[in-house]
Amino acid sequence: MRVPVVQQHRRRRRALRRRVLWTGGEVLVTAGVVLLLLVVQQLWWTNREARRGAERQVQALERQWGASTSASPATPGARDGGSPAADSTASGGSSPRRTTTTGNTLTPRPSQAYAILVIPRLHLRVPIAEGVSKRNVLDKGYVGHYPGTQQPGQEGNFALAGHRNTHGEPFRYLPRLRLKDTVQVETGTAVYTYTVDKILPRTSAADSGVIRPIPRSLVKPSYGYRTPGHYITLTTCTPEFTSRYRMAVWGTLTSTRPRA
Fold this sequence. Notes:
By secondary structure, the protein is of the alpha+beta class. It has one helix at about 10-70; strands spanning about 90, 95, 100, 105, 115-120, 125-130, 145, 155-160, 180-185, 190-205, 230-240, 245-260. The strands form 3 sheets. Strands 5-6-7-8-11-12-10-9 form an 8-stranded mixed β-barrel. The chain has a two-stranded antiparallel ribbon with strand order 1-2. A hairpin with a 3-residue loop joins strand 9 and strand 10.
């Protein structure tokens, strides 16, 4: 009986093939683990850190406003924008930073947290900061105020932006808002209540009409307002996990009361 002879070079080829397959498998597993860690970091860790930071900022604002109220409970003419000290805010911590005012107009510093957005239906309570910088505002879990738009309670459009996914995702459930829902904006001196009365489910990311003083879509002109008023605009990306389109929720100011 003849015993087949396996050539040495065939053995080497088989060993090399096994080594290549094993190495390739290790590379794929490693790449999968890295991708999984990146997904966890984006979907869980950034949310965790941003939410904790936003909660601390809300608490810092409330402490500051409480201290300001107790220090000067009977300040005459105290109203939004009436006193730089009344609406000085904390930025990134509990240390107060002053705003500047011109007449009756509040002018926060860039990236400064100076108000709180409250949406009861979404169980949301989040800081509002000046500007829409990703690094300094939105990625901190804050809601950002579009520069150049009006401030809370003023005639015109108080326009805000927030992440829908990752970094705290304060506006993830914005599509759950319905007509007649309320949206509140708290400052150091007043609480402004807006009532949702128009919703634009989707428009172009470049549709600047939604944040104009009289908000009206340039892409879908049937959505928006035609007369001056006191408006709020909430914008975020849509659909989820993309930034291809924007959605907008609009409300009209229905009440103003001094902060207790």
